[in-house]
Amino acid sequence: MKIGIILLALLLVTMAMVPVVSAEDVGTNEYLLITSLSDYDTDKSQWEGVGGMEITKTGKMLVKSLSALGTRSTYTWTAGTDIWNPIISVKSIHYSYSRMDNAPYDIDKIGVRGRVWKNNILQFDESSESPDGADASVNFQSSGPIVGSWFARSNHVFENDATSDYWYPVTEDYVNC
Amino acid sequence: MNKKKIFQLIVISAFCVMVITSLIFFISCIEYSSAPQYSMTINESDHAVLTSTNGNGVKENFGVGLYNAPFHDAANSMHYSKYLEENESFTGYLYLSNQMSEANDFLVFCLFDYTQVPFETEDGYIQVTRILQLKPFEEVFFPFNLGTVSKGAHDFEIFVIMKPNEHSLNETFRRSTDISYLGSRRINVFVGNSTLVEPSYMHFDPEIYSSVCGSEYPVNNGILITKQPCSRTLWFTENVKPDDILDYSINAAADNRYPVSFALVALLDYIQVPVQIVSKESTFFGRLEQGEKVSIPAQVQIPSVEGIHELMVVWMPAPYHKLEEKPGSPIHIPEGIWSTPSTRVGLNVTRF
After folding, report:
1. CB–CB of A175 and B183 under 8 A?
2. Helices (H), B30-104
Protein backbone atom coordinates (compact mmCIF):
# COMPACT_ATOMS: atom_id res chain seq x y z
CA MET A 1 0.00 0.00 0.00
CA LYS A 2 2.85 2.38 0.88
CA ILE A 3 4.44 1.79 -2.50
CA GLY A 4 1.18 2.70 -4.13
CA ILE A 5 0.89 5.95 -2.24
CA ILE A 6 4.50 6.87 -3.03
CA LEU A 7 4.05 6.14 -6.70
CA LEU A 8 0.83 8.10 -6.74
CA ALA A 9 2.59 11.07 -5.18
CA LEU A 10 5.37 10.82 -7.76
CA LEU A 11 2.77 10.65 -10.47
CA LEU A 12 1.13 13.83 -9.25
CA VAL A 13 4.50 15.60 -9.16
CA THR A 14 5.21 14.46 -12.70
CA MET A 15 1.86 15.67 -13.89
CA ALA A 16 2.39 19.01 -12.22
CA MET A 17 5.47 19.49 -14.38
CA VAL A 18 3.41 19.25 -17.52
CA PRO A 19 2.33 22.73 -18.58
CA VAL A 20 -1.28 23.47 -17.96
CA VAL A 21 -3.57 23.10 -20.92
CA SER A 22 -5.92 26.03 -21.09
CA ALA A 23 -8.42 27.34 -23.58
CA GLU A 24 -7.74 30.84 -22.33
CA ASP A 25 -5.02 32.28 -24.47
CA VAL A 26 -4.33 35.76 -23.29
CA GLY A 27 -1.49 35.26 -20.83
CA THR A 28 0.90 38.14 -20.41
CA ASN A 29 4.41 37.80 -21.65
CA GLU A 30 7.74 39.21 -20.69
CA TYR A 31 10.64 40.27 -22.78
CA LEU A 32 13.95 41.98 -22.61
CA LEU A 33 15.09 44.26 -25.34
CA ILE A 34 18.59 43.62 -26.50
CA THR A 35 20.37 46.39 -28.27
CA SER A 36 23.54 44.59 -29.10
CA LEU A 37 24.51 41.01 -29.53
CA SER A 38 28.09 39.90 -29.58
CA ASP A 39 27.47 37.04 -31.90
CA TYR A 40 24.75 34.60 -32.50
CA ASP A 41 25.59 31.36 -30.76
CA THR A 42 23.66 28.20 -31.25
CA ASP A 43 24.25 27.29 -27.62
CA LYS A 44 21.01 28.55 -26.17
CA SER A 45 22.05 27.89 -22.62
CA GLN A 46 23.99 31.17 -22.69
CA TRP A 47 20.76 33.07 -23.17
CA GLU A 48 19.12 31.78 -20.07
CA GLY A 49 20.04 33.97 -17.18
CA VAL A 50 18.41 34.88 -13.91
CA GLY A 51 14.99 36.36 -14.49
CA GLY A 52 14.86 35.54 -18.14
CA MET A 53 17.16 35.79 -21.05
CA GLU A 54 20.47 37.55 -20.89
CA ILE A 55 22.78 38.11 -23.74
CA THR A 56 26.24 39.52 -23.49
CA LYS A 57 26.34 43.01 -24.86
CA THR A 58 29.26 44.38 -26.77
CA GLY A 59 30.17 47.91 -27.63
CA LYS A 60 29.98 48.99 -31.20
CA MET A 61 33.19 48.68 -33.13
CA LEU A 62 33.86 50.55 -36.30
CA VAL A 63 35.59 48.32 -38.75
CA LYS A 64 35.07 50.15 -42.02
CA SER A 65 38.53 49.09 -42.96
CA LEU A 66 40.38 49.08 -46.21
CA SER A 67 43.06 46.65 -47.16
CA ALA A 68 46.60 47.73 -47.94
CA LEU A 69 45.63 47.93 -51.58
CA GLY A 70 42.78 50.27 -50.79
CA THR A 71 40.02 47.81 -51.64
CA ARG A 72 37.30 46.88 -49.24
CA SER A 73 36.97 43.36 -47.96
CA THR A 74 33.76 41.43 -48.29
CA TYR A 75 31.34 41.63 -45.42
CA THR A 76 28.47 39.44 -44.38
CA TRP A 77 24.98 40.07 -43.08
CA THR A 78 23.39 37.35 -41.05
CA ALA A 79 19.83 37.09 -39.81
CA GLY A 80 17.51 34.63 -38.24
CA THR A 81 14.48 33.82 -36.16
CA ASP A 82 14.57 31.13 -33.57
CA ILE A 83 11.73 30.03 -31.32
CA TRP A 84 12.05 27.15 -28.95
CA ASN A 85 10.57 25.65 -25.86
CA PRO A 86 12.79 25.06 -22.84
CA ILE A 87 10.05 23.01 -21.11
CA ILE A 88 8.26 25.60 -19.00
CA SER A 89 8.16 28.56 -21.38
CA VAL A 90 8.57 29.54 -24.99
CA LYS A 91 11.41 31.81 -26.02
CA SER A 92 12.36 33.44 -29.26
CA ILE A 93 15.15 35.54 -30.61
CA HIS A 94 15.09 37.70 -33.72
CA TYR A 95 18.47 39.02 -34.80
CA SER A 96 20.37 40.82 -37.54
CA TYR A 97 24.12 41.34 -37.53
CA SER A 98 26.83 42.57 -39.81
CA ARG A 99 30.38 41.24 -39.79
CA MET A 100 33.67 41.68 -41.56
CA ASP A 101 36.39 39.17 -40.78
CA ASN A 102 34.31 38.00 -37.82
CA ALA A 103 34.36 41.47 -36.26
CA PRO A 104 31.36 43.84 -36.07
CA TYR A 105 31.08 45.90 -39.24
CA ASP A 106 28.96 49.00 -38.76
CA ILE A 107 26.48 49.94 -41.45
CA ASP A 108 24.11 52.89 -41.75
CA LYS A 109 21.12 51.03 -40.42
CA ILE A 110 20.64 47.57 -39.08
CA GLY A 111 17.38 46.52 -37.56
CA VAL A 112 14.86 43.85 -36.88
CA ARG A 113 11.17 43.66 -36.08
CA GLY A 114 10.07 40.46 -34.40
CA ARG A 115 6.54 39.21 -33.94
CA VAL A 116 5.37 36.08 -32.15
CA TRP A 117 1.93 34.52 -32.57
CA LYS A 118 0.35 31.78 -30.52
CA ASN A 119 -2.68 30.13 -32.07
CA ASN A 120 -2.98 33.24 -34.29
CA ILE A 121 -3.10 35.58 -31.30
CA LEU A 122 -0.31 38.16 -31.23
CA GLN A 123 1.90 37.77 -28.17
CA PHE A 124 4.88 39.96 -28.94
CA ASP A 125 5.93 42.76 -31.24
CA GLU A 126 9.18 44.64 -30.85
CA SER A 127 11.58 46.36 -33.15
CA SER A 128 15.13 47.52 -32.75
CA GLU A 129 17.10 49.67 -35.12
CA SER A 130 20.70 50.67 -34.69
CA PRO A 131 22.07 53.56 -36.69
CA ASP A 132 25.73 53.05 -37.52
CA GLY A 133 25.57 49.69 -35.85
CA ALA A 134 26.45 46.09 -36.44
CA ASP A 135 23.83 44.33 -34.33
CA ALA A 136 20.11 44.47 -33.72
CA SER A 137 18.12 41.96 -31.80
CA VAL A 138 14.90 41.53 -29.86
CA ASN A 139 13.75 38.55 -27.91
CA PHE A 140 10.73 37.17 -26.16
CA GLN A 141 9.91 34.90 -23.26
CA SER A 142 6.41 33.68 -22.59
CA SER A 143 4.67 33.33 -19.30
CA GLY A 144 1.47 31.45 -18.74
CA PRO A 145 0.18 28.45 -20.63
CA ILE A 146 2.41 27.37 -23.48
CA VAL A 147 0.34 24.67 -25.14
CA GLY A 148 -0.41 25.63 -28.72
CA SER A 149 1.11 26.50 -32.07
CA TRP A 150 3.77 29.20 -31.83
CA PHE A 151 4.94 31.13 -34.85
CA ALA A 152 7.74 33.68 -34.90
CA ARG A 153 8.58 35.98 -37.77
CA SER A 154 11.25 38.64 -38.26
CA ASN A 155 11.57 41.43 -40.75
CA HIS A 156 15.23 42.42 -40.97
CA VAL A 157 16.76 45.67 -42.19
CA PHE A 158 20.24 46.05 -43.61
CA GLU A 159 21.02 49.44 -45.15
CA ASN A 160 24.47 50.54 -46.16
CA ASP A 161 24.26 53.81 -47.95
CA ALA A 162 27.99 53.96 -48.51
CA THR A 163 27.72 51.00 -50.83
CA SER A 164 24.07 51.47 -51.83
CA ASP A 165 22.85 48.17 -50.48
CA TYR A 166 19.41 47.93 -48.93
CA TRP A 167 18.03 44.56 -47.96
CA TYR A 168 14.96 43.51 -46.04
CA PRO A 169 14.93 39.72 -45.67
CA VAL A 170 12.27 37.92 -43.67
CA THR A 171 12.87 34.81 -41.60
CA GLU A 172 10.50 32.67 -39.57
CA ASP A 173 10.40 29.72 -37.24
CA TYR A 174 7.76 27.85 -35.33
CA VAL A 175 7.30 25.35 -32.54
CA ASN A 176 4.30 23.31 -31.45
CA CYS A 177 3.81 22.58 -27.80
CA MET B 1 -1.52 -13.16 -6.35
CA ASN B 2 -3.36 -11.37 -3.58
CA LYS B 3 -5.44 -8.20 -3.92
CA LYS B 4 -2.66 -6.04 -2.48
CA LYS B 5 -0.18 -7.11 -5.14
CA ILE B 6 -2.76 -6.67 -7.90
CA PHE B 7 -3.39 -3.12 -6.67
CA GLN B 8 0.35 -2.38 -6.58
CA LEU B 9 0.70 -3.72 -10.12
CA ILE B 10 -2.12 -1.52 -11.37
CA VAL B 11 -0.63 1.57 -9.72
CA ILE B 12 2.83 0.85 -11.09
CA SER B 13 1.41 0.30 -14.58
CA ALA B 14 -0.57 3.53 -14.43
CA PHE B 15 2.49 5.38 -13.21
CA CYS B 16 4.61 4.02 -16.06
CA VAL B 17 1.99 5.00 -18.63
CA MET B 18 1.80 8.53 -17.26
CA VAL B 19 5.59 8.93 -17.15
CA ILE B 20 5.94 7.72 -20.73
CA THR B 21 3.12 10.05 -21.84
CA SER B 22 4.78 12.98 -20.11
CA LEU B 23 8.14 12.18 -21.70
CA ILE B 24 6.56 11.98 -25.14
CA PHE B 25 4.90 15.34 -24.50
CA PHE B 26 8.16 16.98 -23.50
CA ILE B 27 10.18 15.49 -26.31
CA SER B 28 7.62 16.52 -28.92
CA CYS B 29 7.49 20.05 -27.55
CA ILE B 30 11.16 20.79 -27.10
CA GLU B 31 12.94 21.93 -30.20
CA TYR B 32 16.60 22.75 -30.26
CA SER B 33 17.25 23.59 -33.88
CA SER B 34 19.26 26.27 -35.05
CA ALA B 35 21.86 28.02 -36.96
CA PRO B 36 21.32 31.41 -38.53
CA GLN B 37 18.78 31.08 -41.31
CA TYR B 38 20.13 33.78 -43.55
CA SER B 39 23.55 34.88 -44.62
CA MET B 40 24.31 37.43 -47.32
CA THR B 41 27.78 38.45 -48.38
CA ILE B 42 28.49 41.78 -50.01
CA ASN B 43 31.49 41.32 -52.25
CA GLU B 44 34.24 43.75 -53.24
CA SER B 45 32.18 45.10 -56.12
CA ASP B 46 29.25 45.83 -53.78
CA HIS B 47 27.10 43.03 -55.04
CA ALA B 48 25.08 40.94 -52.66
CA VAL B 49 25.48 37.21 -52.85
CA LEU B 50 23.20 34.95 -50.86
CA THR B 51 25.63 32.61 -49.19
CA SER B 52 23.36 30.36 -47.20
CA THR B 53 19.89 29.73 -46.02
CA ASN B 54 19.00 27.23 -43.38
CA GLY B 55 16.03 25.08 -44.18
CA ASN B 56 12.87 26.82 -45.27
CA GLY B 57 13.10 29.70 -42.84
CA VAL B 58 13.83 32.52 -45.30
CA LYS B 59 10.56 33.66 -46.82
CA GLU B 60 11.60 36.86 -48.47
CA ASN B 61 14.90 38.17 -49.74
CA PHE B 62 15.05 41.00 -52.15
CA GLY B 63 17.02 44.22 -52.32
CA VAL B 64 15.80 47.62 -53.41
CA GLY B 65 17.61 50.86 -54.17
CA LEU B 66 17.03 54.22 -55.79
CA TYR B 67 19.54 55.50 -58.29
CA ASN B 68 20.00 58.47 -60.60
CA ALA B 69 21.59 56.25 -63.24
CA PRO B 70 21.56 52.49 -63.77
CA PHE B 71 24.81 51.85 -61.99
CA HIS B 72 24.91 50.02 -58.70
CA ASP B 73 27.32 52.23 -56.84
CA ALA B 74 27.26 54.95 -54.22
CA ALA B 75 28.10 57.69 -56.71
CA ASN B 76 24.83 57.14 -58.55
CA SER B 77 22.67 56.41 -55.50
CA MET B 78 19.95 58.91 -54.60
CA HIS B 79 20.81 58.17 -50.98
CA TYR B 80 17.99 59.86 -49.02
CA SER B 81 17.36 63.03 -51.01
CA LYS B 82 17.04 64.44 -54.51
CA TYR B 83 17.35 68.04 -55.59
CA LEU B 84 15.50 69.26 -58.69
CA GLU B 85 15.33 72.50 -60.57
CA GLU B 86 11.90 73.97 -61.22
CA ASN B 87 10.26 72.30 -64.26
CA GLU B 88 12.79 69.47 -64.13
CA SER B 89 11.28 66.00 -64.38
CA PHE B 90 11.71 63.62 -61.48
CA THR B 91 13.29 60.55 -62.98
CA GLY B 92 15.17 57.66 -61.47
CA TYR B 93 15.95 53.98 -61.49
CA LEU B 94 14.59 51.43 -59.10
CA TYR B 95 17.17 48.75 -58.42
CA LEU B 96 15.52 45.44 -57.63
CA SER B 97 17.34 42.22 -56.88
CA ASN B 98 15.53 38.93 -56.37
CA GLN B 99 17.93 36.94 -54.21
CA MET B 100 15.77 33.86 -54.03
CA SER B 101 16.09 30.53 -55.76
CA GLU B 102 12.66 30.84 -57.35
CA ALA B 103 11.22 33.37 -59.78
CA ASN B 104 9.06 36.04 -58.18
CA ASP B 105 6.60 38.72 -59.18
CA PHE B 106 6.98 42.18 -57.68
CA LEU B 107 4.44 44.97 -57.85
CA VAL B 108 5.85 48.51 -57.95
CA PHE B 109 4.00 51.65 -56.93
CA CYS B 110 4.94 55.16 -55.81
CA LEU B 111 3.69 57.51 -53.13
CA PHE B 112 4.47 61.19 -53.61
CA ASP B 113 3.57 63.18 -50.52
CA TYR B 114 1.83 60.01 -49.31
CA THR B 115 -0.50 59.94 -52.29
CA GLN B 116 -0.29 57.24 -54.91
CA VAL B 117 0.82 58.72 -58.21
CA PRO B 118 1.17 57.41 -61.75
CA PHE B 119 4.59 57.03 -63.28
CA GLU B 120 5.87 56.57 -66.79
CA THR B 121 8.09 53.67 -67.69
CA GLU B 122 10.63 53.19 -70.43
CA ASP B 123 8.05 51.66 -72.75
CA GLY B 124 5.99 54.85 -72.60
CA TYR B 125 3.18 53.45 -70.48
CA ILE B 126 1.83 55.55 -67.64
CA GLN B 127 0.45 53.49 -64.81
CA VAL B 128 -0.13 53.49 -61.06
CA THR B 129 1.17 49.97 -60.50
CA ARG B 130 3.50 47.79 -62.52
CA ILE B 131 4.38 44.15 -62.06
CA LEU B 132 7.96 43.05 -62.63
CA GLN B 133 8.79 39.37 -63.07
CA LEU B 134 12.25 38.45 -61.94
CA LYS B 135 14.02 35.15 -62.45
CA PRO B 136 15.95 33.48 -59.64
CA PHE B 137 18.78 35.74 -58.48
CA GLU B 138 18.01 38.27 -61.21
CA GLU B 139 18.56 41.97 -60.65
CA VAL B 140 17.20 44.81 -62.74
CA PHE B 141 17.19 48.57 -63.03
CA PHE B 142 13.66 49.81 -63.62
CA PRO B 143 13.48 53.38 -64.97
CA PHE B 144 10.60 55.59 -63.92
CA ASN B 145 9.50 59.16 -64.58
CA LEU B 146 7.04 61.10 -62.43
CA GLY B 147 7.16 64.21 -64.61
CA THR B 148 7.62 67.66 -63.18
CA VAL B 149 6.72 68.24 -59.56
CA SER B 150 5.66 71.41 -57.80
CA LYS B 151 8.10 73.72 -56.09
CA GLY B 152 8.66 72.86 -52.48
CA ALA B 153 9.88 70.01 -50.30
CA HIS B 154 8.28 66.60 -50.67
CA ASP B 155 8.48 63.01 -49.51
CA PHE B 156 8.72 60.30 -52.11
CA GLU B 157 8.64 56.58 -51.46
CA ILE B 158 8.76 53.75 -53.97
CA PHE B 159 7.30 50.41 -52.88
CA VAL B 160 7.84 46.88 -54.01
CA ILE B 161 5.32 44.21 -53.03
CA MET B 162 6.22 40.57 -53.38
CA LYS B 163 3.67 37.89 -54.36
CA PRO B 164 1.01 40.41 -55.47
CA ASN B 165 -0.86 37.78 -57.44
CA GLU B 166 -1.16 35.31 -54.59
CA HIS B 167 -4.83 35.34 -53.57
CA SER B 168 -5.03 32.19 -51.49
CA LEU B 169 -7.20 32.46 -48.40
CA ASN B 170 -5.01 29.88 -46.72
CA GLU B 171 -4.39 30.95 -43.16
CA THR B 172 -0.68 30.17 -43.27
CA PHE B 173 -0.15 32.34 -46.34
CA ARG B 174 -2.21 35.18 -44.92
CA ARG B 175 -0.33 35.10 -41.62
CA SER B 176 2.95 35.15 -43.55
CA THR B 177 2.04 38.49 -45.13
CA ASP B 178 2.08 40.26 -41.76
CA ILE B 179 5.03 42.75 -41.67
CA SER B 180 6.34 41.02 -44.80
CA TYR B 181 6.59 40.96 -48.58
CA LEU B 182 7.16 44.71 -48.82
CA GLY B 183 10.31 46.70 -49.42
CA SER B 184 10.61 50.42 -50.01
CA ARG B 185 12.95 53.37 -50.28
CA ARG B 186 11.99 56.84 -49.11
CA ILE B 187 13.72 60.07 -50.05
CA ASN B 188 13.15 63.80 -49.60
CA VAL B 189 12.65 65.67 -52.86
CA PHE B 190 13.55 69.35 -52.92
CA VAL B 191 12.44 71.57 -55.78
CA GLY B 192 13.94 75.01 -55.46
CA ASN B 193 15.09 76.28 -52.10
CA SER B 194 12.58 74.64 -49.77
CA THR B 195 12.22 73.09 -46.37
CA LEU B 196 9.98 70.27 -45.24
CA VAL B 197 6.75 71.12 -43.46
CA GLU B 198 5.17 68.60 -41.13
CA PRO B 199 1.52 67.73 -41.80
CA SER B 200 -1.41 68.33 -39.48
CA TYR B 201 -1.45 65.30 -37.25
CA MET B 202 -4.54 63.69 -35.83
CA HIS B 203 -4.48 63.88 -32.05
CA PHE B 204 -6.29 61.04 -30.39
CA ASP B 205 -8.89 62.67 -28.23
CA PRO B 206 -9.97 60.01 -25.70
CA GLU B 207 -13.58 61.12 -26.09
CA ILE B 208 -13.47 60.32 -29.79
CA TYR B 209 -11.03 57.45 -29.71
CA SER B 210 -12.50 55.56 -26.82
CA SER B 211 -10.80 52.38 -27.92
CA VAL B 212 -7.53 53.06 -26.21
CA CYS B 213 -5.64 49.82 -26.09
CA GLY B 214 -3.93 49.21 -22.76
CA SER B 215 -0.22 49.09 -22.11
CA GLU B 216 -0.42 45.29 -22.26
CA TYR B 217 -1.39 45.45 -25.91
CA PRO B 218 1.55 43.76 -27.66
CA VAL B 219 1.99 46.02 -30.70
CA ASN B 220 4.92 48.45 -30.58
CA ASN B 221 5.89 51.14 -33.09
CA GLY B 222 3.54 49.78 -35.71
CA ILE B 223 0.07 48.51 -36.51
CA LEU B 224 -2.10 45.44 -36.43
CA ILE B 225 -5.32 45.49 -38.40
CA THR B 226 -8.15 43.51 -36.86
CA LYS B 227 -11.89 43.12 -37.09
CA GLN B 228 -12.52 44.44 -33.57
CA PRO B 229 -10.81 47.36 -31.81
CA CYS B 230 -7.70 46.42 -29.82
CA SER B 231 -8.01 42.77 -30.76
CA ARG B 232 -4.90 40.62 -30.89
CA THR B 233 -6.39 37.96 -33.11
CA LEU B 234 -5.10 37.52 -36.65
CA TRP B 235 -7.63 38.84 -39.16
CA PHE B 236 -6.90 37.34 -42.52
CA THR B 237 -10.14 36.95 -44.46
CA GLU B 238 -13.71 38.20 -44.57
CA ASN B 239 -16.76 37.19 -46.56
CA VAL B 240 -18.40 40.35 -47.86
CA LYS B 241 -21.06 41.47 -50.30
CA PRO B 242 -20.36 43.70 -53.31
CA ASP B 243 -20.55 47.44 -52.64
CA ASP B 244 -20.91 46.98 -48.89
CA ILE B 245 -18.94 49.05 -46.42
CA LEU B 246 -16.69 47.00 -44.18
CA ASP B 247 -15.62 48.32 -40.79
CA TYR B 248 -12.29 47.29 -39.34
CA SER B 249 -9.75 48.58 -36.87
CA ILE B 250 -6.22 49.83 -37.31
CA ASN B 251 -4.58 49.32 -33.95
CA ALA B 252 -1.61 51.68 -33.85
CA ALA B 253 1.03 51.93 -31.16
CA ALA B 254 4.00 54.06 -30.31
CA ASP B 255 7.08 52.40 -28.99
CA ASN B 256 7.48 52.23 -25.21
CA ARG B 257 10.69 54.25 -25.51
CA TYR B 258 9.74 57.22 -27.69
CA PRO B 259 6.77 59.01 -29.32
CA VAL B 260 6.02 58.40 -32.97
CA SER B 261 4.52 60.35 -35.82
CA PHE B 262 3.21 58.32 -38.70
CA ALA B 263 1.27 58.20 -41.94
CA LEU B 264 -1.19 55.44 -42.78
CA VAL B 265 -2.41 54.51 -46.21
CA ALA B 266 -4.92 51.81 -47.04
CA LEU B 267 -4.62 49.82 -50.25
CA LEU B 268 -7.35 47.81 -51.92
CA ASP B 269 -5.88 45.61 -54.63
CA TYR B 270 -2.78 47.80 -54.20
CA ILE B 271 -4.65 50.98 -55.12
CA GLN B 272 -4.86 53.67 -52.45
CA VAL B 273 -8.30 54.09 -50.89
CA PRO B 274 -9.44 56.33 -48.01
CA VAL B 275 -8.67 55.05 -44.53
CA GLN B 276 -11.98 56.44 -43.36
CA ILE B 277 -14.78 56.76 -45.88
CA VAL B 278 -16.39 59.65 -44.02
CA SER B 279 -13.33 61.85 -44.06
CA LYS B 280 -12.36 60.82 -47.60
CA GLU B 281 -8.75 61.63 -46.70
CA SER B 282 -6.41 59.45 -48.71
CA THR B 283 -3.80 59.51 -45.97
CA PHE B 284 -4.13 59.46 -42.20
CA PHE B 285 -1.44 61.37 -40.31
CA GLY B 286 -1.15 60.71 -36.59
CA ARG B 287 1.09 61.22 -33.63
CA LEU B 288 1.25 59.06 -30.52
CA GLU B 289 2.99 59.75 -27.27
CA GLN B 290 5.50 57.31 -25.85
CA GLY B 291 3.71 54.07 -25.02
CA GLU B 292 0.36 55.28 -26.36
CA LYS B 293 -1.73 52.63 -28.10
CA VAL B 294 -5.02 53.34 -29.84
CA SER B 295 -7.49 51.73 -32.17
CA ILE B 296 -8.40 53.81 -35.22
CA PRO B 297 -11.77 53.02 -36.76
CA ALA B 298 -11.46 52.41 -40.50
CA GLN B 299 -13.79 51.52 -43.33
CA VAL B 300 -13.38 50.22 -46.83
CA GLN B 301 -15.84 50.26 -49.71
CA ILE B 302 -16.12 46.71 -51.04
CA PRO B 303 -15.65 46.40 -54.82
CA SER B 304 -18.62 45.43 -56.93
CA VAL B 305 -16.70 42.67 -58.70
CA GLU B 306 -16.94 39.23 -57.12
CA GLY B 307 -13.77 37.37 -56.24
CA ILE B 308 -10.84 37.76 -53.84
CA HIS B 309 -9.66 41.31 -53.22
CA GLU B 310 -6.62 42.32 -51.22
CA LEU B 311 -6.86 44.81 -48.34
CA MET B 312 -3.78 46.06 -46.56
CA VAL B 313 -2.58 49.09 -44.63
CA VAL B 314 0.95 50.50 -44.67
CA TRP B 315 2.50 52.19 -41.63
CA MET B 316 5.06 54.87 -42.49
CA PRO B 317 6.78 56.45 -39.50
CA ALA B 318 8.20 59.97 -39.37
CA PRO B 319 6.56 61.57 -42.41
CA TYR B 320 8.17 64.74 -43.73
CA HIS B 321 11.27 64.37 -41.63
CA LYS B 322 14.55 65.39 -43.18
CA LEU B 323 16.38 62.15 -43.84
CA GLU B 324 19.98 63.25 -44.35
CA GLU B 325 22.20 66.24 -43.65
CA LYS B 326 24.01 65.76 -46.93
CA PRO B 327 24.02 62.91 -49.45
CA GLY B 328 25.24 59.79 -47.71
CA SER B 329 24.94 61.16 -44.16
CA PRO B 330 21.56 59.97 -42.87
CA ILE B 331 19.88 61.51 -39.83
CA HIS B 332 18.87 59.08 -37.13
CA ILE B 333 15.14 59.13 -36.38
CA PRO B 334 14.21 57.08 -33.30
CA GLU B 335 11.10 55.52 -34.79
CA GLY B 336 12.95 54.85 -38.03
CA ILE B 337 11.65 55.41 -41.53
CA TRP B 338 10.89 51.79 -42.04
CA SER B 339 7.50 51.31 -43.72
CA THR B 340 5.72 48.21 -42.52
CA PRO B 341 2.75 46.46 -44.08
CA SER B 342 -0.18 45.01 -42.21
CA THR B 343 -1.51 41.55 -42.80
CA ARG B 344 -2.95 41.20 -46.29
CA VAL B 345 -6.64 40.49 -45.70
CA GLY B 346 -8.37 38.46 -48.39
CA LEU B 347 -11.81 39.94 -48.97
CA ASN B 348 -13.98 37.23 -50.44
CA VAL B 349 -16.63 39.17 -52.35
CA THR B 350 -19.69 37.05 -53.15
CA ARG B 351 -23.39 37.70 -53.59
CA PHE B 352 -24.31 35.12 -50.95
Report:
1. no
2. none
